[in-house]
# Entry
Amino acid sequence: MTSIAPPLTDDDIRDRIQQLGPWFHNMKIHGIWTAPDHFLGDYPNVKFKGFAQAIPSDLRGKSVLDIGCNGGFYAIEMKRRGADRVLGIDFDDDYLAQARFAADANGLDIEFRKMSVYDIGTLGERFDVVIFMGVLYHLRHPLLALDIIHDTVAKDLLVFQSLQRGSEQVDVIAEDYDFWDQQHFDSPGYPKLHFIEQRYSNDPTNWWAPNRAASAAMLRSAGFEIVAHPESEVFICRRVEIATPGAVYPCKEGRP
# Structure
């Protein structure tokens, strides 16, 4: 006979939230905040409100991959929109424990795995929606990650967000420039990926800070057509075929 666990009380939820903290995703679990003193307030929901309408509200029959899922906020939101399959991956055991608890407490069937973005080719499947929020600037090799996403897991939509710094200006860039023509590099609207050698905001994993032009250019270079830009750091893209090959990397689909 299968036993059914009793429902969690408010005290159970508070205790579990405390045990699993600190949380970066501030979410309500049965009315109880996971990070009530978050420095960004109601985050990431306050961010999500700026682009939620750009993602299909009905994801029935669709699959979703949330890369760098953290505490599971976006995976949970996609499951609430009816996605048949939602897989969240992260390389941090603490975040994965938070995400599993949040999903289970909300009665949602979401799979979570410990995995690096560089290893997603081993999944051997493509997803209708790929979420890549708040990850690029934490990576030593960001363009490689976009290439792998394009080549191995993206089927259609990519929801991308990165910390951005520098100008919001976006220049029209010529297809080519003469070797001696250098002035465009100094324009605020030229794509720039600022390298952070030490740390930024007291975080040693903050390696890069693209400006808006660089975010867009990197997405296009990796084979993603930008179809909407609903929020300053968020780009909604569709995967397209590109003639130029992506980066050479060790992890191909179906090969460890």
